[in-house]
Specification:
The protein contains four helices and 15 strands. It is α+β, with helices and mostly antiparallel strands.
Length: 259
């Protein structure tokens, strides 16, 4: 009789680990600044990512301190937002995504530290949202995480990335059909913990992950070097997969507002 070995335990999180919370707030009628302040007090995240954040959410910085950046979707009252208790090395990059029929979408990418982090709210089209992911991948470093509202049903199909987020449903369509729309995909990282939090006033549950760089061994170093070279080729080619790069929001009709 062969005894099966248990899978190796992930290493303990080190000094480069980060606790990240992602939450679709439900614009205007959902989670507001009071809810976010309570969440921050309870969870103490290193980074809070928000989707469907309106201009009013910018008051979070005055409420709890830290730094805040908002990327408004073109022609919409809401967009993506990031909050951190400590200053980031540089402002989050705003990446325009392949547009849908009704909504032009963007992504926030935070560079610096041990790995890059993308904040996403993808389109509902199941081909389009996967194209958007490939555009985002071209703007990420070798070690990276992509979190947010994917609006994807089934696997994300992003080569080189693993889905390490919670497996529980995070959204109930019309309060009936449970779906796991809020996800975390990583490359070159280890997830030490994951959970789904109570949804509060939103129609989405927040998700929490704690991530750190994958331990470096010969296989890891070679894989990351190949990823970094591939990222460099995509950047030199312009926009990477999905077509030409559009103007940055804020330069032609849309607005972004770091606060």
């Amino acid at each position: 009789m062969l005894l099966r070995r248990p899978p190796p335990s992930p290493p303990e999180p080190g000094s480069e680990s980060r606790k990240i919370v992602s939450w679709n707030l439900l614009r205007r009628t959902g989670a507001a600044v009071d809810c976010l302040a309570a969440l921050i007090e309870r969870e103490r995240p290193d980074l809070l990512l928000m989707q469907e954040a309106t201009r009013e959410i910018g008051a979070l910085k005055e409420r709890v301190g830290g730094v805040y950046a908002w990327a408004q979707l073109p022609g919409r009252i809401h967009g993506l937002a990031m909050w951190s208790p400590t200053p980031w090395e540089r402002e989050p990059e705003i990446v325009p995504l392949p547009p849908g029929v009704l909504i032009d979408r963007v992504c926030q990418v935070l560079h610096g530290g041990a790995f890059g982090i993308a904040n996403v709210h993808l389109s509902h089209g199941q081909v389009l949202n996967r194209r958007q992911l490939r555009r985002i991948e071209a703007h990420l470093p070798a070690r990276a995480a992509v979190l947010g509202d994917y609006n994807i049903v089934g696997p994300a199909l992003l080569p080189g990335f693993r889905d390490v987020g919670p497996r529980r449903p995070t959204h109930a369509m019309v309060d009936v059909l449970p779906l796991r729309l809020d996800r975390c995909l990583v490359r070159g990282l280890v997830c030490h913990e994951r959970q789904v939090l109570p949804r509060g006033l939103s129609d989405h549950h927040p998700i929490v992950v704690r991530l750190s760089p994958e331990p470096e061994g010969p296989a890891t170093v070679g894989r990351l070097r190949g990823m970094a070279e591939a990222v460099g080729r995509l950047r030199r080619a312009g926009a990477g997969p999905g077509g030409g790069r559009r103007d940055r929001p804020g330069s032609g009709g849309s607005r972004t507002s770091p606060q």
